[in-house]
Amino acid sequence: MKWRVKWIIAITFTIGVIGVAKLEGAGTIGKPVTQYVTTGEDFLTMKKWVSSIIKDPEDETTVVSHEEGLLPAYESMQPFKDGVLVSYTVPIAIQAQANGLVVFTGSTRDTGKTVTVLYDDGDEVTYGFVGTFEKLPYTSVKKGDTLALMDDEAIYIMVKRDGIHMDSSLLPTYLSGSVE
User: Fold this and answer.
1) Cα–Cα distance, 139 to 142 (Å, whole number)
2) Phi-psi map region of 129: left, alpha, beta (phi>0 left; psi -120 to 50 alpha)
3) Could you tell me which residues are beta bridge partners of residue 112?
4) What is the rounded distance in angstroms from the CA atom of residue 121 to the CA atom of residue 105?
5) Which neighbouring-strand residues pair with 165?
């Protein structure tokens, strides 16, 4: 499908969602439709539905994971807030560990510049103290896409699985790619 057709479908869909939300707000529609498009998981479901309609043959590319796990070998790891601070000898590129959706890019008080990705398997991973953003919010990513670049030699990582913060003692195993 050509990019123009994809954009027309995306714009039509967006106008439809906004129109339905306005009609719901005015009381014309009695059912609460907007609740289906206000959370990240619902947005991910809608993304899968739309992508199944606009399926490209190039989207069926299989990416082979590298042997080092989700991130290269780190120097040290320390618990911090609900996640961990991971130190490296040199700054690295932060790459998507699977297909998913960038749900937040911005700055927070605790972790500075931060990127949060909701992966298709349901894991929500937050990368903090990043240097440069490479993806915008609500951008779909494929495994191996660069999300951000580190300026410093440390990064904050927090993983939510099924809405619950993963214990920091499990994160080294998660980063090695062993936790399913």
Assistant:
1) 10
2) left
3) 108
4) 20
5) 160
